């Protein structure tokens, strides 16, 4: 939740702590305003004053209303308007379905420990990804059970090689288990954070185990063993098909150390 409006406009970051919304504003020294004026999604106006100062940043605090979330705030001194990302309320004692542009999120019964206000931010579809990138809640929030995420792939693109990935430890990692339905890629996870629908361009690694590549395979051998691994999106057993020359032969997947 951060927006920059030029060198002389405030930097704004916000986070949700329980039922409270904390808006941290870093003002340029020449444009400081005590109160921010805003509007709820219903159209009702509000004003908030700073609650405290954190390392020279002004922090505004307001109680969240689960029926009417803030839509934007304005700083009339710097002539700035700042729009909030969508906020959704999740309840533990019911099924929760959220549908936003390019994103579907389903929280089953008792998947969260307590009612949550979740910020959901989506980025526009890029030419590089052709999918959608989005952020759900805060990755520090614990979950009781996993929930389902669905991200859309560009309509003209087949989803065969697309995966839902999560940003963790400075890299993208595919989320499993995963399925593809229509133009959406779905996966289950017990983590919040930053997600993206992206094309899997990393091919699996295949290496022989009981024979030498390019060598002779004896007819007395009962098995041909290959190690197959995928460091990004795992191996889907139903997609494995083997041929010797033009003849199809049955292969069986036996998992061992993610190979």
Please provide a written account of the structure.
It is a single chain. This protein is an all-beta fold and 259 residues long. It is built from no helices and 24 strands. Strands 10-13-14-20-16-17 form a 6-stranded antiparallel sheet, with no helix packed on it. It has a 5-stranded antiparallel sheet with strand order 1-2-3-7-6, with no helix packed on it. Strands 11-12-15-19-18 form a 5-stranded antiparallel sheet, with no helix packed on it. It is elongated, with a radius of gyration of 25 Å.
Oligomer: single chain
State the low-pLDDT regions, or none. 1-7
**Number of beta strands:** 24
The number of helical runs is 0
**What is the average per-residue confidence, as pLDDT, rounded to a whole number?**
81
SSE string: EEEEEEEEEEEEEEEEEEEEEEEE
Radius of gyration: 25 Å
The structure class reads mainly beta
Percent of sequence in beta strands = over 45%
Shape: elongated
The major β-sheet equals: 6 strands, antiparallel
Head-to-tail CA distance between termini:
39 Å
Spatial strand order of the main sheet: 10-13-14-20-16-17
């Amino acid at each position: 939740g951060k927006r920059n409006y030029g060198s002389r406009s405030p930097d704004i970051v916000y986070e949700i702590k329980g039922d409270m919304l904390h808006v941290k504003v870093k003002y340029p020294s020449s444009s400081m305003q005590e109160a921010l004026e805003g509007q709820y999604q219903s159209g009702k106006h509000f004003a908030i004053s700073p609650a405290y100062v954190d390392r020279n940043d002004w922090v505004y605090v307001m109680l969240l209303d689960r029926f009417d979330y803030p839509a934007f705030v304005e700083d009339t001194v710097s002539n700035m308007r700042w729009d909030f990302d969508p906020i959704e309320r999740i309840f533990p004692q019911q099924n929760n379905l959220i549908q936003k542009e390019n994103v579907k999120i389903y929280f089953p019964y008792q998947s969260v420990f307590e009612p949550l206000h979740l910020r959901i931010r989506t980025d526009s579809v890029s030419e590089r990804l052709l999918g959608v990138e989005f952020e759900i809640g805060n990755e520090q929030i614990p979950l009781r059970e996993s929930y389902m995420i669905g991200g859309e792939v560009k309509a003209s693109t087949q989803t065969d090689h697309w995966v839902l990935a999560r940003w963790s430890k400075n890299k993208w990692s595919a989320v499993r288990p995963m399925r593809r339905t229509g133009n959406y890629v779905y996966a289950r996870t017990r983590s919040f954070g930053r997600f993206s629908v992206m094309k899997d361009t990393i091919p699996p690694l295949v290496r022989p185990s009981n024979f030498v590549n390019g060598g002779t395979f004896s007819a007395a051998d009962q098995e041909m063993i290959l190690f197959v691994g995928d460091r990004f999106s795992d191996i889907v057993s139903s997609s494995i098909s083997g041929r010797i020359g033009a003849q199809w032969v049955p292969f069986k997947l036996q998992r061992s150390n993610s190979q």
